[in-house]
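FAQ: What does the model actually see?

It sees only this:
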Amino acid sequence: MNTIDSIINAVYNNKRLEPHEAVLLFQCDVATLGVIANYCREQIVPGNEVGFVIDRIINYSNRCQAMCKFCAFHAQAGKVQPYDLTVDDILQKIDELVHIGGTQVMLQGGLHPDYTLHDYVAMIKTIKQHYPDIYLHSFSPSEIVHITKRSGSTIDAIIDTLQQAGLDSIPGASDLLVDDIRKKVSPRKATVAQWCEVVRSIKKHGMHTTATMTYGMGETKLQRIEHLYIIRKMQDETGCIMAFIPWSFAPKGTNMDTIIPATGIDYLKTVAISRIFLDNVPYLHAGWLTEGLALAQIALAMGANDMGGILMEEKVVKATGITTTTNIPQLCDIIINAGKIPVHRDSMYTVLRRMV
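And it is asked to produce this:
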């Protein structure tokens, strides 16, 4: 029978934890988990550098057929009027990003009821024609599966076509990789198996991805670890998952608004246990957008080693009432006051400049 002490000793002996062992770590206090997680982070990415990218999320539409219960942004939620951005709208937003030294754009639009593969290809090509140096880290596995179904093609063929048009990488938006939960909160989106198939195809095409986790949607602690286990297995198989980004579900304005939001302590424990369990994913983002800047700063002592991006114009989370924003000087101050070294990085996590 495993004890907390035996599990902690196993971690310090660089032994990989099993899911049932990782669940027990939720019984530890936050301070203990932080020490262990920071040890694990040091084994993967040594040093005190914490990176960020200057980026912008462009939600090109909110007309989405997924209609997830946890989303307050899609048009059917009744909170935001339906819209589709024009190409000129998108180019103007990218111009504003370039003006402040930005390098990465995340195009996100959900499962659009009308767009075809042609629309996505045209969007990418137009952007690259005007801004060839902008890095397009865009769409999601569920969007890829949706485009595949609408076109009657294959995931490999769709990713190949988008890559040839100029797509650089695909963020691995994961929600919660537990089919029982997905059937309840997002039954129209990609299944766990389809998410894995997209990641395999991303690897096949020489691209990279990330993985996220939205927790606090009624799942058990074991189901959270099951999610991490899928990510760890896929990283073992592909090696193309650059970063992991956990965040707590914000129920306000959604069809799940009776759920009590997760606590800050729960977030910090989840960050630390994710770092301990995901022994093969180099970067773990502190979730300043969803958790707030103060809690994100503490997460840098819990195994997180990246602040993600400045996220100009993020709309999906803001639809739930969360209005946290940041900028380059503020992120640098937060990182420095956490005893870390802020670095401006690119989309491949290569340091462009140290900010001290």
